[in-house]
Every structure is written in C-alpha cells, then in structure tokens.
Amino acid sequence: xxxxxxxxxxxxxxxxxxxxxxxxxxxxxxxxxxxxxxxxxxxxxxxxxxxxxxxxxxxxxxxxxxxxxxxxxxxxxxxxxxxxxxxx
Length: 88
Known about the structure:
Layout: E1 3-9, E2 17-21, H1 26-32, E3 35-37, E4 46-49, H2 53-62, E5 66-73, E6 76-82
Antiparallel strand pairs: 1-6, 2-4, 3-4, 5-6
C-alpha cells in the first residue's frame, strides 16, 4: 500500500490519531500501535492510535513514507503520505 491518510481533531492534537481503515495493512497498523475500532453509528471500521500525529508521522517516516499533502477541514487535520516504490 503506497498511500496512507492519517487525521486528528484539532482540539485533541496530542492524540488520538486515525491511521487507517478496515482494509489497511495489518502489519503497519500493529507497528503504529493502532487498534481497529468501530464508532457507534458508523458502518465502517478505522484504526486508531493513541499517539499524537507528530509521533505517528515520525514512525511512518522511519518506514519510508513521506508527507505529500496536508489539509485542515473544519476541526480536522489530515495528512496524506506516500511510500516510494524503492522502499517496497
């Protein structure tokens, strides 16, 4: 999986961080210390890590991922990361 999207609510910038969905790489999610959860009322699952986004971004960089975009949407910060083929 060369792309990953992570997000957090601005008011809780020290965590938790959403790091994936139900189809994400299980090994990577385990490396990040993320747990698969499903919020009441949602029809999808997501991986949530207790770490702050900065820690998650640092850990993903160690695995070869680079931030390619960042946006703020309402009260949410979202980062898109890409892992170049040479790191596969």
